[in-house]
From TrEMBL:
Substrate binds at K105, D137, T177, E178, Y179, E180. It comes from Lactobacillus gigeriorum DSM 23908 = CRBIP 24.85. Pathway: tRNA modification; N(7)-methylguanine-tRNA biosynthesis. The keyword Ribonucleoprotein does not apply. Keywords: Methyltransferase, S-adenosyl-L-methionine, Transferase, tRNA processing. It catalyses: guanosine(46) in tRNA + S-adenosyl-L-methionine = N(7)-methylguanosine(46) in tRNA + S-adenosyl-L-homocysteine. SUPFAM superfamilies: S-adenosyl-L-methionine-dependent methyltransferases. This is tRNA (guanine-N(7)-)-methyltransferase. Catalyzes the formation of N(7)-methylguanine at position 46 (m7G46) in tRNA. Residues 107-112 are annotated as: Interaction with RNA.
Amino acid sequence: MIQDPDPSKVIDWSERFADISRPLEIEVGSGKGRFITTLAERYPEKNFVALELQTTAAGIILRTKLEKKLDNLQIMRADAADIDAFFAVNSADKIYLNFSDPWPKSRHEKRRLTYKSFLQKYQTVLKDNGLLEFKTDNSGLFAYSLKSLNNFGMQFDFVSVDLHHEADEIVEQNIETEYEHKFASKGNPIYALHAKFQTKDL
């Protein structure tokens, strides 16, 4: 596990992955890691990074990684606000935001992971054709995120207000997080979107 990395230094991921040429996917706020470890197990031809702030949760992900021998998964205990400091420009193929803290009070808007300052960082890290995937059970955060991404000029490839009742192929491909399983089992709708940034000039 990478703990408290120095934001002034881009991490050399070639030292962490056996094959750095593989597609790179990042989950921001991985919790206990059900989603990211399942992805890593399902797609051994890709590299994955779990970015998690809480030490206990990151430790649980590490334990699963070791138990399942997931060499294509790295865990970083760090703040998502520094994501653009840890990854090179145009280096990631996909970023996942799953069941992020909604920060419902207006004075906390800047802490929401779909706030414009975070979107700017994701755009820097993602390749031009990279994808941002977002899931939540919070209708307020979903509505806010739709507006925020739209105002940022992003293109929506997929939007759902009830993910678990979409077409069978979409439901089958979906990997549940711990929170998602909990909320969906209570009958709560799961909101989801996939979006791309406009091509950036660097």
